[in-house]
Amino acid sequence: MGVPTPRRSTRFIGEILVEAGYLDAEASERIAQAQRQNGLSFGDAAVKLKLLSRADIEFALAQQFEYPYLHATNESVSPSVVLAFRPSDPFAEQMRSLRTQLVMQRAANTSVPSSFAILSAQSGEGRSMVAANLAVAFSQMGERTLLIDADMRSASQHKLFNLSSRNGLSNMLLGRAGPECISKVPHFFDLSVLTAGSVPPNPQELLTRARMTTILAEAAKTFDVVVLDTPPAAEFADAQIIASRTGGGVLVTRAAKTNARVLNRVLTAFKDCGTNLVGTVLNLA
Fold first, then answer.
1. Where do the domains of the chain lie?
2. pLDDT digits (tens, 9 = 90+) for 159-216
3. pTM for this entry
4. What contacts 194, CB < 8 A, 6 or more positions away?
5. Helix (H/G/I), strand (E/B), else coil: 57
6. Transmembrane segments in this chain: where (predicted)?
């Protein structure tokens, strides 16, 4: 898991904005004319003519450098996925800091895994939101990233990314579906999602099958990073099973929400099953 350099598209900003529907060809030509006459950048000329906002220009620049994020009007991804919309948000910076921490650990020690289980003790601590945002963060730096919704009890990643969950992890674990269940996320070049799939009556038993190890091993051949969402660890043993298969856990706690006694009990359980905690997140929301 290296640190790739930003990729730059050969498309001009005007072309990107026309393709995205923010400009028509005539408006783009007006901006280009003002750009030449006044010695301005395309963005400054567009803003001066009041044909585009600064947010529109930032969106186009991000696309040009293949650092994808969505315009605020886009409804294909939930607003909870902050990095998909607001890369300057403090939470987005927190996720990038976590990403950097994980990347640096991997660079310094190859025993640090490139698959991470996102863990928390209880419901409502922001575990699924962190999993989604961390996956987007990795994809934005050019890492081929797979987000797996391994919370087959209360799945949410298909809702966050507006995907079908008819077939997913549970179906693959049963041997009734294959990698075709993995969905590419539109607008994000390097992000794919494996949803939880059909709701099974026995998620814990499915996770203990050898097929889970096989799925993760196959994913490691195709993707640079695998991020797994999990059920709350104090309520179900699923999280311990998942974390032991990945070998690396990121623990999420929430201010004024996480119960210290419950957290300590969960930490003991993770230690007993050999989980290597490689990162922590304090959710202030």
1. 13-64, 82-283
2. 999 999 889 999 999 999 999 999 999 888 899 999 999 999 999 999 999 999 999 9
3. 0.83
4. 146, 147, 148, 149, 168, 169, 172, 181, 182, 183
5. helix
6. none
